[in-house]
From TrEMBL:
UniProt-recorded name of the protein: ATP-binding cassette domain-containing protein
InterPro entries reported for this sequence: AAA+_ATPase, ABC_transporter-like_ATP-bd, ABC_transpr_CbiO/EcfA_su, ECF_ABC_transporter_ATP-bd, P-loop_NTPase
CDD domains the UniProt entry points to: ABC_cobalt_CbiO_domain1
Pfam families assigned: ABC_tran
Gene source species: Paracoccus lichenicola
Length: 239
């Protein structure tokens, strides 16, 4: 089958269930994942990208198990983390983008040419020799997006990619996203970033508590967040 298939996913970390019984078949071009802090969103993103193997159930993309088949994962799925500093490892922009392509088996010269082509596509050809540490947070996030897209993934998983960015930078990055052909699975706390999305998954306490089109899920999600926002549950410490 095509698309992301999550079948009864369970993940336990440090003896605690973090995801339980999560099942969904995602074929829509734009899928959002919402939920409170600690609800398991990042863990689910990592499961989809094959970075975490579930303790129970199966996660597949286009029929392949991303955690077991890292070669298929490199060709199929890319992930963009919340903090680009956790993702960027090379001193220059060109090296950063070319790296993933050499990982996929391209020769260095071909990888460099493809990296330059990706920079040109975003009108950022002049960034090639720039030092990655000199980029702003928004520029770093765009670099991560270009590095992932250069690998031509079928699915791009994004874990709160716009947090910490100012509004114009966020809007620019969202516009870039509009133009990409890959299926996007995006985690966010901000329902405003999910305009135009096709489907929303809502996680609470590691379980999927709602799954449907934005019109059906987001108004309930926002009402619930406002209600919980009125309570003082920050006083409790996890046991
Ligand atoms: N490596 C780990 N070891 C132990 N517990 C973990 C680990 N990673 C995450 N957890 C716990 O799993 C739960 C879910 O974490 P996760 O990061 O998936 O949630 P989240 O919904 O993405 O949260 P946030 O919105 O705050 O980023 C949390 O209670 C967290 O403390």
């Amino acid at each position: 089958m095509t698309g992301v298939e999550l079948r009864d996913i369970g993940v336990t970390l440090a003896g605690r269930p973090v995801l339980q019984g999560v099942s969904a078949r995602l074929e829509e071009p734009r899928v959002g994942i919402v939920g409170r802090n600690g609800s398991g969103k990042t863990t689910l993103a990592r499961v989809i990208a094959g970075l975490v193997a579930p303790d129970a159930g199966q996660a597949r993309i286009d029929g392949a198990d991303m955690a077991a088949d890292r070669r298929a994962a490199l060709a199929t799925v890319g992930i963009i983390f919340q903090n680009p500093d956790h993702q960027i490892i090379f001193p220059t922009v060109l090296e950063e983008i070319a790296f993933g392509l050499t990982q996929q088996g391209q020769r260095p010269r071909a990888a460099e040419a493809a990296a330059r082509a990706m920079l040109d596509r975003f009108g950022k050809g002049h960034w090639a020799p720039a030092a990655t540490h000199s980029l702003s947070q928004g520029q770093k996030q765009l670099l991560c997006l270009m590095a992932v897209l250069a690998m031509r993934p079928r699915v791009v998983v994004m874990d709160e990619p716009f947090s910490g960015l100012d509004i114009p930078t966020r809007l620019q990055l969202m516009r870039y996203l509009d133009g990409i052909a890959a299926q996007v699975v995006m985690i966010t706390h901000d329902p405003g970033q999910l305009r135009g999305f096709d489907r929303i998954l809502w996680l609470e306490g590691g379980r999927l508590i709602a799954d449907g089109p934005p019109d059906a899920v987001l108004p309930r999600f926002e009402a619930q967040m406002r209600e919980w926002g009125g309570l003082d549950d920050l006083a409790h410490l996890a046991g």
